[in-house]
Design goal:
With about 300 residues, the protein is an alpha/beta fold. The protein has a domain of about 140 residues: HUPs (Rossmann fold, 3-Layer(aba) Sandwich), CATH 3.40.50. The chain is built from 9 helices and 10 strands. α1 links the parallel β1 and β2. α1 crosses α8 and α6 crosses α7. It starts with 11 loop residues before the first strand and ends in a 16-residue tail after the last helix. The structure holds glutamic acid.
């Protein structure tokens, strides 16, 4: 349900599900943590549908996600935004990066990159910079941004001090894919800036994207939000719960909500002691303390 909240400070949080399936337990955790932290700080909580990767979008799943959130009792502020409607803003950011001289066209296929890495015994999963100094024609190529070898550090509210040297951790990364779709890293940075997001609370699977996003913010002269990465929920067979691993749609009942709050390390409550979802949210808002959210390695949940 969209809600107008008059009592706010500058805190602007957000939840940004990809419409690639139903809302599962892992995304409920990210929604709950980002929502509760925003509300505890008298902030606003925005919803964005991350549908930049149209090939992965499942028809109607945005509506299913919004419906499930509503049934769980989430109330969002402002209108829901869709990445697919913001393409011109990503294009402007891309041009800004091109003008800075840091981006370049890359015609390498995954197979070619793999072969270069193997032949030269280079670290896996790091782009070796093959096209960096070659004037590739932009058609039929991706666009990468040159990274630096200086560390990018940030203080995560849950994971603590984090640091990454992009030249060692990712190499020059893609901002425009070969099929001319904007990359997740670029679109998310532009979206968070345009929505003036001050706090990004999301799953720890995105922890290692954060330095790349901060790097883009620096190049685009955007401020960086405060980050907080919540632990991942894994199933009993140790698989990350995601839509890709066929995670189940959640039930919007008090049992599920209290299980999620418990997973997030908050003072436990028996769901039998709650009468309604409104009761649950009141309880969670009262007890919410982001310092109680555990780091990722410690948590496992059976779902
Ligand atoms: N859309 C991303 C996902 O569903 C989350 C993006 C973000 O929170 O930065 O995994």
């Amino acid at each position: 349900m969209k809600k107008t909240n008059l009592k706010t400070n500058n805190y602007r949080g957000r939840f940004a599900p990809s419409p690639t399936g139903e809302l599962h337990f892992g995304s409920l955790l990210a929604a709950m943590a980002s929502y509760t932290d925003a509300k505890k700080n008298n902030g606003l909580w925005l919803l964005r549908i991350d549908d930049i990767d149209q090939a992965r979008v499942i028809d109607q799943s945005d509506l299913h996600i919004l419906n499930t959130l509503e049934q769980c009792g989430f109330e969002w502020d402002e209108s829901v935004t869709y990445q697919s409607q913001c393409l011109k803003h990503y294009q402007l950011a891309l041009e800004q990066l091109e003008h800075s001289g840091l981006s370049y066209a890359c015609s390498c296929s995954r197979k070619q990159i793999q072969a270069i890495i193997e032949k030269n015994h280079l670290p896996p999963s790091i782009y070796p910079g093959t096209c960096r100094n070659q004037s590739i024609i932009a058609d039929n190529s991706a666009t990468r941004i040159q990274v630096a070898d200086t560390p990018i550090g940030f203080n995560d509210l849950i994971q603590g001090d984090c640091s990454s040297i992009l030249s060692e951790d990712s190499g020059d990364f893609i901002i425009l894919r070969r099929d001319k779709t904007f990359s997740y890293q670029l679109s998310v940075v532009v979206d968070d800036f345009r929505s003036q997001i001050t706090h990004v609370v999301r799953g720890a699977d995105l922890l290692n994207s954060t330095a790349r996003q901060i790097y883009l913010q620096q190049q685009l002269a955007y401020p960086s939000p405060q980050y907080a990465h919540i632990p991942l929920a894994v199933s009993s067979d140790n698989l990350k719960l995601s839509k890709l691993s066929q995670a189940k749609k959640i039930r919007c009942d008090l049992k599920t909500l209290t299980l999620a709050a418990d997973f997030l390390g908050q003072r436990p409550i028996n769901h039998h002691d709650l009468e309604s979802k409104a009761d649950f949210w009141q309880y969670l808002l009262n007890v919410w303390d982001i310092n109680r959210v555990p780091k990722m390695e410690k948590q496992m949940v059976l779902v």
